[in-house]
Every structure is written in C-alpha cells, then in structure tokens.
Amino acid sequence: MPSSGSANPVDPPLKVPPVQQWEHYGVWHRVNDLIYSLPNYFEAELVIRGINVTEVFSMGSAFATVIETQVVNILNKLRGIWDPENAYSKYAFIRQSQTFPDVLLRNLETPDDILFGIELKSWYVLSKEGEPSFRYKVDPDACATADLIVVVPWILSDVLSGTPGLLTPYKELAKYAAEYRNYYWQKSRMENNENPEINRPPEQNRKPYPSGKQECSDEAASDRGGNFGRIARAGILDDYTSNIKAQDYLGIKITHWITFFKAISETSTDSKIDKRLQTLKNQILSEPDSPDEETSRHREVFLEVIGRLEELWEKIP
Q: Fewest Cβ atoms closer than 10 Å to its Cβ: which of 2, 4, 122, 281?
C-alpha cells in the first residue's frame, strides 16, 4: 500500500478549517464553542467506591461510553443555542459505535446528509502517563473538513471515589490531527534512521464517514512498540496537557496528584518511594501559599498524608 503524507514529510501540515462561506458554518462554529462548556452540563449517575489507584484507570474504556452518550444528549438538549432559528429541525446528534467518528450531526430523514462528525476520546487525568494514551489512527482523507476530534478529561469528585466530573476539553480539526500524527511519525522515524512508511487503507475507504465494515485507519509499517497513533507524543497536546496538570484539584495541583499516585502504585523499593514522596513534598512546599482558606486546608492535609506515609515506610522492616 502507498505511504501516507507529502513527498517531503518534514513539512508540517497546514490547518484548514471550513470556510466562513460554507452554508453550515454558523452551526459548526456554535457547536465548537459549546464543546468547551460540556463540563457544566455533564451529569453522571455513576458512583465509584472501593477501588484502588491502579483500578481506576482500567475503567477508562467503560467510562468512554458514558461520555459519548452524555455528549450526544447534552448537545441535543442545547439545540436552542446551536440552532437558535430552528433551521436544523430535521438534524440531531447521533452516536455510532465502532465507527469513525463517534458522533454525527445528521439529517434524521436522510441518513447520508451529514453536516460533520466528532471523534471523542476520554482521558483520566490522574493516569501515571501524565498525558492521554489513546490511539488515533484514522486516515486523514477519511476526515471531512469540518470533523473534530475532542479529548474529554475526567476525574472523580473525591479523587479515588465519587462521581466522575469533566475538565475543559481539548478540540482540534480531525483531519489536521491525523495529518500531524503522520508528519510527526515520519519525521521522527527518518531522524532515527528507521522505517517511516505508513500503510494506508484501501483507496475506496479513504473518504469521510466510512461504514462500520470499512477499515479506514493508517498503520505504521514498522511499529514494534505499538506507539503509532499516540498523538499526545507528537506534541500536538503539549500546551493543553500542561495547562490541565497545572490546575488545582481539591487544593493540590493535578501534576502533584499524578506524582503521588505514581510513586505509591509502581513497583519499587521503599527507599525510592520515600525519595519520590520527599521530592513531591518539597515541590509543594516551594509553591506560594493560597489565599483561599479551603485550598490551604487541602494542601495541609495532603502534606500530612505524605508525612504519615514516610513514617510508615520507615517502620516497615
């Protein structure tokens, strides 16, 4: 199969959004804005109790289905915002499983009349990777110009228990994300004198909104580590993930929560765990005090937990 990408893969792709003259640009633009407000409308009946740190991440795939269903319901309930003049009364957001993209804005009377799609990816922000680990492999030509990829970060209300809540999503043009993924893969492989070839799906499948039976994903010709498609490693999400991890959650920066859980969940010696906890404690103590009383209280409790864990490891023979 032919290789994906331009003749000169060191040239990064250009971002090409829909033109403002497109007849559906208004509804597309309003939905784009609404995506950032999804956390305000998200309501999950799911309550999680009695699991440990390593088990929370394993629930990601199940929670992805909850997110997809909720996003469809939220967007349809907010029709008055994205369709204020009721010009799209025959259209609705619908979810499709095991097919790209996850969500379509489609004419209910004419199924082939699709305005655009949204590919949804969930991210448990306290995962030890510290970044989204999903694979995004769809071929760029299988993305319509208006299609989006949306990363939805989630966290539990009481950190390791409670109800799931959403943080600010990441949004990008689906076609651009796919092109950038291939650009990064080919460039990095060429720099390391490795095989940069990307095998594309059959030409007849390289079109927007393929059927569920049509394979529309790119595959790296050589990928022993199984890393092709991890767009977070391509750098396209760097600024976004940094901003998310810099946020406070229950008075503690998310990046410190990640460091904490990584220190106590990975197999390691007691001395290494103690060293990591001490480093984390020093990082927290070096940050300026918060003027918010509740935030300061959470921070003190967090430091107290670290201190008691250090005492515990000292007592273990």
A: 2
